[in-house]
Design brief:
The protein is an alpha/beta fold. It has helices spanning 3-13, 31-34, 37-51, 65-77, 132-143, and strands spanning 16-18, 26-28, 58-62, 81-84, 94-101, 104-111, 120-128, 147-156, 170-176. The model has no long low-confidence stretch (mean pLDDT 95).
């Protein structure tokens, strides 16, 4: 499927829910993609084609929907999948980071042995808003010695300027919702 066709299908499939999880937030329910096997397949294939000729060691998925898209991509690419989790979900030893997100603060953890120093990784999540979670994930991976090649998202809200939080790390999103 061509990217423009996939973008049109995503626009039709992803509902927006106002005032969730807090008043003033417009929530893009990306779980609709997972309920449509064909759409989910095309999203996974789009990410896989992007990295078909890239030399990398692992796919890193951000808790929680990044696990779903990341695991699918890792499977498709025959690469290891590494979860970045919310606190208390991984056995020791973990590296942790505190970060700011669109509507609060958060904390993320990764096992210290999840990747080896020098490993090249792709980070994936469902949505890029203000970039706090993605930035925290990149910093966490860099602390344990990984090289983040790119961060990928199904949806991006460019007006919230999340890409700027990623510094020199490249980012890619399949679809963008301006004015969100």
């Amino acid at each position: 499927m061509q990217l423009s066709q996939l973008q049109n299908e995503l626009r039709s499939a992803i509902p927006t829910i106002p005032d969730f999880p807090k008043p003033g937030i417009l929530f893009y329910d990306v779980t609709a993609v997972m309920r449509d096997p064909s759409l989910f397949h095309h999203v996974t294939k789009t990410f896989a084609e992007r990295f078909r000729s890239t030399d990398f060691d692992a796919v890193v998925g951000i808790d929680a929907r990044g696990f779903i898209f990341g695991a699918a991509l890792a499977y498709e690419m025959n690469k290891p999948f590494v979860p970045v989790r919310k606190p208390g979900k991984l056995p020791p030893e973990v590296e942790k980071i505190y970060y700011v997100l669109e509507y609060g603060e958060g904390e993320l953890e990764i096992r210290k042995d999840a990747v080896k120093p020098g490993d090249k990784v792709i980070v994936i999540d469902d949505l890029l808003a203000t970039g706090g979670t993605a930035k925290g994930t990149v910093e966490l991976l860099q602390r344990i010695g990984a090289e983040v090649l790119e961060c990928c998202f199904v949806v991006e809200l460019p007006d919230l300027n999340g890409r700027a939080q990623l510094g020199q790390v490249e980012s890619f999103s399949i679809i963008q919702y301006a004015g969100a």
